[in-house]
Design a protein that fits this description.
3-stranded mixed sheet; 11 strands; alpha+beta; globular
Length: 499
């Protein structure tokens, strides 16, 4: 794998936790900033926001109800004959003080401008123009809502990266121990019929991320050990429900879930319990945030909890089921190929490790392809810092300062001018030299997979930990089992190796 992954992981290497602005810009800004094709005429962005109130409401109903996000964006690409156009995205009228007007950027070339911090700012744009109340995060704008120009952004980002780096020494043994426990529990229930993997995986994720990232053991708190994952689910859901499309149970969803933001008091008990857990169990990490990164105790704790809940728990809770769903739908015999690669690499080395999994090209490619088609965060937003010219594959458009750009990543990463057979899940797409070149266009992490997270960009601090952890999850499964039978988000059978 690329040297930047080894550079960031603590595998017998000295790993810096702070990156210069020059380093980050070199890896993340060069995709878009030099991409404007001066031979093309400059156009106004096509599309329309419609009549006041009526236009946003119509688009909201189409997005969340009548069409769903993918069809919504595809239809407008066809109508405007362009992958760049004006439209509206929820949340909007009647009770959201947010502007739903966006410029959609839906091909790889135009979308890459979202990562150029000289062109785009990310202040309070995590979920669009609307931002959940800061009461959900202790009255603070945590790092995800900060722009790179704000001084505290680099402090918190470096704190997050340092915390991840330090955890790498316990990452694999913690993961394998907890996965063995999860699989033992699932196996014990299979005799009675199919076993849903959703709750077991969430319990595993909560325990794993708490222990590895925060050094906080849920077993020390009976309430958190039993209900911690549910408390995290509720805290996330109440913040995000207004912006999450749900095409079933309509029109009730539009009336009761998408018309107004939910108040914090609905989950205040959950958040306070989680906060106390982190405060009591993650003292070493919090203290380091205070002494080495000059954060207040409260800033360190609330940001650490957001990293655990929103970034790690929330992200893995989407990614792992997507991975298993891809396995379930495969008709090419991929399980046998994955099993063969995993066992060859593990047996020829020193067991399952961060190093050995980096040698599993097919396993990693399978993970990358899952992220290409089903990124945990489907939408990315950024606001233009200044007037600039935005280039798609075949046109150049005028973007005005203050306009909000919106990219729907599941379509962006199906760009037919970049990916062959873009609608099909191709397990080995990212293998070989050509596959590694395609990592430049794998954007799931608020930046390219070939990029380097740093204080001067908004790329996910744990980008490489996410892909390697998911690869470890997959590798561990095929070390333990010859095959798994999956349907309807459940395991119905597992086949163990013959002694």
């Amino acid at each position: 794998m690329y040297s930047f992954q080894l550079y960031k992981l603590n595998i017998n290497l000295q790993i810096p936790t702070k990156f210069s602005k020059t380093e980050a810009k070199m890896t993340n800004n060069n995709i878009a900033s030099s991409s404007v094709n001066t031979s093309l005429a400059v156009h106004e962005v096509p599309g329309s926001y419609g009549l006041p109130l009526l236009g946003p409401l119509t688009d909201r109903l189409s997005y969340s109800w009548f069409q769903g996000p993918e069809k919504f964006f595809r239809k407008r690409i066809e109508k405007n004959k362009s992958t760049v156009f004006r439209t509206n995205v929820p949340p909007s009228f009647p009770f959201f003080l947010a502007n739903p007007n966006v410029v959609a950027v839906l091909d790889c070339k135009s979308f890459a401008h979202m990562f150029d911090m000289e062109l785009v700012e990310k202040k309070n744009t995590l979920v669009g123009d609307w931002m959940p109340s800061t009461r959900f995060t202790g009255g603070r704008r945590v790092c995800a809502y900060l722009d790179t120009s704000e001084p505290q952004h680099e402090q918190i980002k470096n704190f997050a990266m340092d915390t991840l780096k330090r955890s790498s020494t316990v990452w694999v043994p913690t993961l394998t121990t907890l996965l063995d426990t999860m699989w033992d529990n699932i196996e014990s229930k299979l005799a009675s019929g199919p076993v849903s993997y959703l709750v077991p995986i969430q319990k595993f994720i909560f325990a794993f991320t708490s222990l590895c990232i925060a050094g906080a053991d849920p077993a020390n708190s009976p309430d958190i050990a039993d209900k911690g994952y549910m408390r995290m689910d509720r805290w996330l859901a109440v913040q995000l429900l207004p912006s999450v499309p749900i095409t079933t149970f309509q029109p009730l969803v539009e009336i009761f879930l998408h018309s107004f933001p939910y108040p914090y008091f609905l989950v205040s008990r959950d958040y306070n319990k989680l906060y106390k857990f982190v405060e009591n169990e993650a003292k070493e990490v919090i203290s380091r945030g205070q002494t080495e990164f000059k954060l207040s105790k409260e800033d360190a704790t609330h940001n650490l909890l957001f990293i655990l809940g929103f970034n790690a728990f929330g992200g893995f809770s989407i990614l792992f089921p997507s991975l298993l769903s891809a396995l379930a739908s495969d008709k090419t015999g991929i399980q046998e190929k994955l099993r063969k690669e995993v066992r060859e690499k593990v047996e020829s080395g020193s067991g399952l490790s961060l190093r050995s999994v980096q040698e599993m090209d097919l396993v990693q490619s399978f993970v990358y392809e899952t992220l290409r088609l089903n990124p945990p965060v489907p939408l990315q937003y950024g606001r233009a810092r200044k007037d600039f010219e935005l280039s798609s594959h075949d046109s150049v458009f005028k973007i005005k300062k203050g306009e909000l750009l919106c990219g729907y990543q599941p379509l962006v990463m199906r760009d037919p001018k970049v990916f062959d057979d873009p609608e099909t899940f191709v397990p080995d797409r990212f293998t070989g030299d050509k596959g590694k070149e395609l990592l430049t266009y794998l954007y799931w992490s608020n930046g390219p997979q070939s990029g380097m997270p740093g204080g001067s960009n908004k790329q996910c601090a744990g980008k490489d930990y996410v892909t390697l952890t998911t690869s470890l999850f997959l590798a561990h499964m095929f070390l333990r089992y010859d095959s798994v039978t999956i349907a309807n988000a459940s395991f119905s059978a597992v086949e163990k190796p013959t002694p």
